[in-house]
């Protein structure tokens, strides 16, 4: 019985030591990755060759990807990344796509057959609907990544440019 008590005390002491060490020596992650990720448009579109903005930011921070692979970020995004990293800006990589104005997906609900392929393709869950019923897009959640357009078998999804409003208008950066 004394041996069992001694082992329990040993395990409790080691558990306490591990808990203390985990809190005391906690690593928050790479702050550079967070800064790079904050500059990316958060479309999660994958056009850069990575499954989302966070993996792309991690690859940039580790030197595995270039700063000009994000078409939704456009030239302004490349410039912001270059400023942050202290490197020369480069033209947007044509192999990853071209910069376009911000757009939102709109589903023609009269044509939609409820196949759910667009639901599966949307990386931010901005599409609502169920199998065999029409779907609709939550415009405030849509990032304009266009990933829902290609899988639609009836071509009922169209990208509509988002008009600029006073709330999101910014003057162009000085050159």
TrEMBL record:
Its EC number is 7.-.-.-. Its cofactor is [4Fe-4S] cluster. InterPro entries: 4Fe-4S_dom (IPR007202), 4Fe4S_Fe-S-bd (IPR017896), 4Fe4S_Fe_S_CS (IPR017900), Elect_transpt_cplx_RnfB/RsxB (IPR010207), RnfB/RsxB_Proteobac (IPR016463), RnfB_subfamily (IPR050294). [4Fe-4S] cluster 3 binds at residues 122, 142, 145, 148. It holds the Pfam family FeS. GO terms for cellular component: plasma membrane. Binds 3 [4Fe-4S] clusters. Residues 103-132, 133-162 form the 4Fe-4S ferredoxin-type domain. Residues 1-22 are annotated as: Hydrophobic. Keywords: 4Fe-4S, Cell inner membrane, Cell membrane, Electron transport, Iron, Iron-sulfur, Membrane, Metal-binding, Repeat, Translocase, Transport. This is Ion-translocating oxidoreductase complex subunit B. The lineage of its organism: Bacteria, Pseudomonadati, Pseudomonadota, Gammaproteobacteria, Methylococcales. The gene is rnfB.
């Amino acid at each position: 019985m004394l041996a069992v008590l001694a082992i329990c005390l040993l395990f409790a002491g080691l558990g306490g030591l591990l808990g203390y060490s985990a809190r005391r020596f906690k690593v928050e992650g790479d702050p550079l990755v967070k800064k790079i990720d904050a500059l990316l448009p958060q479309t999660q579109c994958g056009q850069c060759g990575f499954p989302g903005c966070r993996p792309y930011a991690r690859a940039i921070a580790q030197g595995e990807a270039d700063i000009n692979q994000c078409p939704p970020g456009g030239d302004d995004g490349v410039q912001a990344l270059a400023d942050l990293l202290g490197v020369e800006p480069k033209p947007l990589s044509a192999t990853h796509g071209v910069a376009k104005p911000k757009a939102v997906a709109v589903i023609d609900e009269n044509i939609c057959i409820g196949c759910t392929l667009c639901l599966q393709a949307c990386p931010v869950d901005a599409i609502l609907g169920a199998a065999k019923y029409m779907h609709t897009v939550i415009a405030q959640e849509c990032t304009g990544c266009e990933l829902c357009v290609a899988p639609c078998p009836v071509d009922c999804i169209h990208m509509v440019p988002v008009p600029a409003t006073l709330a999101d208008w910014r003057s162009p950066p000085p050159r």
